[in-house]
Amino acid sequence: MSLAAEQRYARQVLHWGGEKQRQIEQSSLLVAGVGGLGATVSQLLVRAGIGRLYLVDDGVLDWPDLNRQTLYGEKDIGRAKLPLARERLNQINSATRISELAGRIDGAFRVPSEVNGVADCLDNYRSRFSLYRALAAGTYFVHGGLSGDNGQVLTLLAGKSQPFDEIFAGAVQPEGSIPVTPDSVVVIAGLMVNELFNVLWGTPKLLDRCLVVGLADFSMAFLEI
Amino acid sequence: MLQLQFFGLIRILLKREAMELAWAEGDTVQRVLDRAQDQVGTAFVHKLLDDLGTPRSGTIILVNRRNIAHLKGLQTPLADGDTLAFFPPGAGG
Fold this sequence. Notes:
The complex is a heterodimer.
Chain A: H1 3-8, H2 10-25, E1 28-32, H3 36-48, E2 52-56, H4 81-92, E3 97-101, E4 117-120, H5 125-133, E5 140-147, E6 150-157, H6 164-167, H7 182-200, E7 209-214, E8 219-224
Parallel strand pairs in A: 1-2, 1-4, 2-3, 4-5
Antiparallel strand pairs in A: 5-6, 6-7, 7-8
Helix pairs in contact in A: 3-4, 3-7
Chain B: E1 2-6, H1 8-14, E2 18-21, H2 29-40, H3 45-48, E3 60-63, E4 66-67, E5 83-87
Parallel strand pairs in B: 1-5
Antiparallel strand pairs in B: 1-2, 3-4, 3-5
């Protein structure tokens, strides 16, 4: 580790140690969606020193995004999020190799074979179902979702866990915009990143176990899947 | 006994995260929902089912970790000791 890297990661290595830091730096993750959840999830992963990050998103930044999409600002309105996210993440930590996967997540989407896990930061069930179906057996999938004061994080292991689209069968996207606040997005994104680290270290804590978070009364509960 | 678990907005509405109900011969998800509503004294079934009695898209119902969409829906038969979970997942991101 270079002197700059030693300094950059000094505070977190004090907590989790050099071996876990090395595992993070040698890992590769796909972050699906760089909107509300994905902007913060990808940012925290890059700050922590993730080795390689694949990003996928086909959105263009709009005003209602700015309340929670932490990588972007007013001057970015109208620009495609994917190259913007890559640019901003690269400014935060140039040691992370970042690849853009253009296009929509649909039945033709392919997940890079080298990824150690996938972060579902999407905002609709159709894309989430397509993403899960695209996973090779043995790939970890960390799902996050939220609405208003409520959110959830769940880890599945493709090929072993109940498939995501079976668990969430019948869950249809609500019509219109979903209420989302800056604080709730960052809370769920932070929990997702914590679990992504656990996945990279081989100790997922939410495997087949959905953490249901309620900010209205600061509650957390487990739903066994 | 049957174990019922409530999550998210359903938990907040009912001000409880779980309850137990005695199991009865012939119990289905629908029957237990009606009995649970009577017992808690708070109308909540309308949050889960529409006017036709069809599950709304916003909440998933699991019986022993399986979505009832893959079982027999509201007519899924229940056995003594079963666990039912009512969970409205957040769809946004």
